[in-house]
Amino acid sequence: MSLVRQRIEPGIEVLRLDRPETRNAFDRALLAELIAALETLAGDQDLRALIFSTTDTIALSAGADVSEVLSVEQGVARMAAFSALYEAIEAFPAPTIAVCVGNVIGAGAELAVGCDLRVGGDNLKIGWVGARLGVPVGPARLVPVVGVARAKELLFTGRVLGMEVAERFGLLHRTAPADQAEAVALGLAGEIAGNSLPGVRALKAMVAEAQGSAERVRQENRGLEHWQQHGSGLPQGG
Known about the structure:
single chain; 238 residues; alpha/beta; 2-enoyl-CoA Hydratase, Chain A, domain 1; 6-stranded mixed beta sheet
């Protein structure tokens, strides 16, 4: 198991990625665990907030596990799993919070900006590095958070940001020392949990509809899967 789940009352769930030896890089097993957890939790009518965190402040996630040895078919299936994860986060009915500590790179950064809110630790290194491999991913989630001009800079250059710059760019809602970031996220979740559950969920749905975010995510996912099937694709085993 690469995912640790903890339920904190009232109505707060924490999902902690637990592959510290790979800086929580996403392999097929971790993707499957996350998707299954999200599917279960999406049906929990009592859930008020969901936190994505880590068992080790070295990283929320350093991105896709490109060392994972895969066949061509398995590589395509893994990309489809990334698409499923991104869509599940986008469609999740309760507010989501990402604890952004250590490496938050590539798919890790996608997870972070896919969440509604983010808490950054002082050891944060966050970046969208898809341009280095030609990965067509990032605009669907990043543009609404930082704006078109800033997103272009970050996507085209692959620039990695520390906590202070990430906060200045509007990526972070709270900051803290790395070892306290999850506690701050829990405090933020507690503020949300103290409000009307149906009211907060309705507001989240309204914001998503106003942005048209679900369709943007689906369109980007189609491009990602086509690139994996017919383009260079992510490395599969080094």
